[in-house]
């Protein structure tokens, strides 16, 4: 039971990390566009 709970927590953490990475990649892409425009 305890192990299962931990696994679920880990999965949720991974999901959050994945969405954070996707968000930061989108921001990075927009950032590069801004940098290129400013140059």
Automatic annotation (TrEMBL):
What this protein is called in its record is Uncharacterized protein
The scientific name of the source species is: Capnocytophaga cynodegmi
- Where is the organism placed in the taxonomic lineage, from the top? Bacteria, Pseudomonadati, Bacteroidota, Flavobacteriia, Flavobacteriales
């Amino acid at each position: 039971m305890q192990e299962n709970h931990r696994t679920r927590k880990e999965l949720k953490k991974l999901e959050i990390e994945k969405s954070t990475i996707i968000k930061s990649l989108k921001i990075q892409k927009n950032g590069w566009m801004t940098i290129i425009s400013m140059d």
